[in-house]
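Explain this protein:
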Amino acid sequence: MKKIDLVIPCYNTHKTLHRLFGSIMSQNCKDEIHVIMVDDCSDVGYEEVISPFRDILDIEIIRLEKNSGPGTARRVGMQAGTSKYIMFIDSDDTFYNAFSVERLLYEIESRQCDIVYSDFLEDLENNQFLLHENDHIWVFGKIFKRNFLESMNIYFNDTRSNEDNGFNTLTRCFTEPQYVNEITYIWHSNPRSITRINNALYSFTCLEGQVYNKIWAFKEAYKKGWKREYYIRQIIDQFLYYYFDYFHIKAQTREEIKPELYIKWVSSFYNEFKDEIKEAIEHSAFEEEYKVGFINYYNNFDNIHIQDLTLDEFINLLK
């Protein structure tokens, strides 16, 4: 049996598969990789594209009968595999070098942990790259122990936006991922990708999916036995993030970025957890949590935006 199931959701991505499979084929530990391609009801099948690689790589193709999104495709791929470890790569991306998978495999085996995550590069076109360090949002550059995921019944949900964030948030409720300070993945530029269209407006519009997936992850974790003290703390930490982020949103100048939409999306989070938020605010430790949240949020931005609403006033906007 191979050590790693490498799950690849695919939807009409025939043009980039040669690059992807070239990257997989170059891996020093390619003989330990079982490739699971999940065809998300593409217009044309993939057999002709991957046939040159079948003699070198162990490839399985699963076709979905209707287009369901990357979250569903990844879940189907996870459930189809049996290898000890699971990794994910998108069909238009590549590994950073020939030792990327081997390094992650070595780290998770030697540390005997549930998850190892690494850094990745984002291809911005024109030979410009952005380094993403210590990332907990995307499933890029990570390796997961199957037994941990299955024992906690952790899978992707069916959402089409920020499903990575929901999945990663849920895993972190029950384990502490181990970090390796090394680049293992390249997120390649794709102008047609949902994250790149409309001049990267997705960075704003994805907040609706982010809010939904945070709600989903916290509720799922609590149902699975997450301790209430951690549950409350994560809810208030996330809520404070939304509060501080509101001033960042208001400071944007693009017409399409509308603070009223942000309030609408965050209202769903507040109304789902208003009792827990009230409990946290009334706790004696809230003042310290507020200070930590303020520092953590503004460390991520060059400029501190003017806070023209108190937390109580922000809550009144959400009711």
Remarks:
- The two ends are 54 Å apart (CA to CA).
